[in-house]
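Structure ticket #2291
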Amino acid sequence: MHWLAGSSGLVMVTDDPVAQIQTDRIPSLALVLVVGILVATGVYLLLERSLTRVLLGFVLASNGINLLILLAGGAGGAAPILGRSSEPISDPLAQAMVLTSIVITLALTAFVGAMAYRSWQLYGHDEVQDDIEDRRVARFMAERGEDEDPADLPETAWGLDSDRGVA
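Resolution: structure written out below.
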């Protein structure tokens, strides 16, 4: 048994087929770092208030997760059609999951992009504002000085008209 440098990292050369299959599943360190950077940057941008940054964060995080799924699928091989080739076939499940994820990412990108564009047209910015009700709940909880769950309190404790649900 000895190691050779291949295009996807170190490759162990051995006569044992089980050991060869296990080493084919070891991803390149550079690709793992790229996945980590994409997901970390995407999550950071998702926590921003600007819809444009949220959109970019979602795209980066989804691309990182797609790359992670492809890395988990193992090394590439022949097309997954039985009887066509004698070499090992690639895992079609990872490819199908990534293709589905790409379609979902495209739809969500179009939706959030349209929402950011409409917000820019109406208000001149695409920043998401605080919800007025959330501020009211926070102020009420601070005044009471209690750590109760707001969902457990009756509606009259919030100063709401119980018939209409408004202040």
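Closing remark: Helices lie at 17-24, 29-46, 51-72, 92-123, 132-144.
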